[in-house]
Amino acid sequence: MLGSVFGWFFYLFDPLANLAIPPIQPQARLRPENNVPVAAEGPWEDIITGHYGVPPLIRIHDRDGIVKWKFERDDVQQDLPKEIRNCLYSSANDATELKWMRNGTAVAAIYSSLALIINHTPDNPETDKLITWAICRDNEVLWNAHTLEPLPGDRMAVGTTGQRPWDGVLVYNTSEALPLDPSPPILQNVTGLRAIHGLIWDEAGSMLWAAGTDLAADGSDPEPARGTIHAYPFDEATGLLHADDAYVYRLDEPVRQDVEWGVGFTWWVGLHDLVPVPNQRKFLVSEDSSLHAFDITTGRFTEHHGAVVDKYMPGFRVTTNDRHGVDGDGVLQEQPLGDLKSFSLAPDGSFIYVQSLWQKYRGNHTSLVENGVYRAINEGLEIYRSRWFGDIDGWPKPR
Ligand SMILES: *[C@@H]1O[C@H](CO)[C@@H](O)[C@H](O)[C@H]1NC(C)=O
Ligand SMILES: *[C@@H]1O[C@H](CO)[C@@H](O)[C@H](O)[C@H]1NC(C)=O
Ligand SMILES: *[C@@H]1O[C@H](CO)[C@@H](O)[C@H](O)[C@H]1NC(C)=O
Ligand SMILES: *[C@@H]1O[C@H](CO)[C@@H](O)[C@H](O)[C@H]1NC(C)=O
Would you indicate the residue range of the signal peptide (predicted)? Predict the structure, then answer.
């Protein structure tokens, strides 16, 4: 009773109500007194990039773009269930997501019409490029899935990236002991967050964070949609995520996507990538039109737009000079920070990003900034995402 009275007290005095949220305790193994080191990986040479095309291509390359390892469907020699093979050999050009996992011995990806896990064991050709888990996306639930993220206990969270109230996160068992199954059972179905484009496991807080919109991003709901970050605490005893409204953080204003796509375009600005800042309890988040920083401890968005670049991404450079258009009020707007479909910060201060071309869905290179100096790599490829291929310090993937 008292608790709820105090809850309301905070609601009255703080419109964001974030002070009412209980502080998140770091997991035992990450508490400073337990002296468990978080690996300082490095030297941050390896980058994983998805190249759109038929077939799509995944590459691991260095900072000069020199390819060390690649995956395309013709590399798959193993026997696959027919449905999985059909989804691998679909006409989809998607190389939408690609992530380091299992200490670098595997890649989680959205590739062609599949969400999958591929072995990355270049020193062992016997196991390299084996598909150890896959799910077909050629259905009304997963066709637009844009991202996935490993959870503890061989679980995998997949964002459905849809506009309906029942869109959200689906959790699957990716244990290598299970046979490949094109439609595996769902361990958990967490509904409510639309248009999910980013998922990040938070080992210190023991929660999954997701970036999407609170309502339909395509404008099909009567109310406007706002960019929204949602955290789902993970219960180690039950292995389930909790959908708790206390951990919902919305951007203040809904914004139409009219500057880029023209007046009358129904879509609302939504979130693209959710990026942990190495060794800090902070996220940067990109959206169609700009960038924001979010502080986990206070539950607040702390910097916006150019202030994010000044503080966290010095040396950022807009990739083409045509990123402007007229908004609904007829005012010319520049959007140099918009459309970072992916970006990724290394602990040494280097960062990479992929900014889609203006009025396009993908970029045509990866941008790399080292010591404040910009250069383009992977030029001429059609790219949605590039990420550091490593365990980001302070943000270890689950073991
Ligand atoms: C992770 O991989 C690195 C090198 O790639 C290796 O040195 C380390 O022992 C591995 N850690 C575990 C827990 O397997
Ligand atoms: C998830 O749950 C919602 C709400 O119960 C339901 O409408 C939807 O069909 C479920 N999704 C799947 C893939 O089972
Ligand atoms: C996943 O499958 C493995 C192999 O059958 C099993 O041991 C494990 O308990 C399953 N995990 C969950 C969360 O169901
Ligand atoms: C990438 O796109 C920009 C803008 O359309 C264009 O000027 C540039 O030539 C393209 N670069 C390559 C390598 O295709």
Answer: 1-20
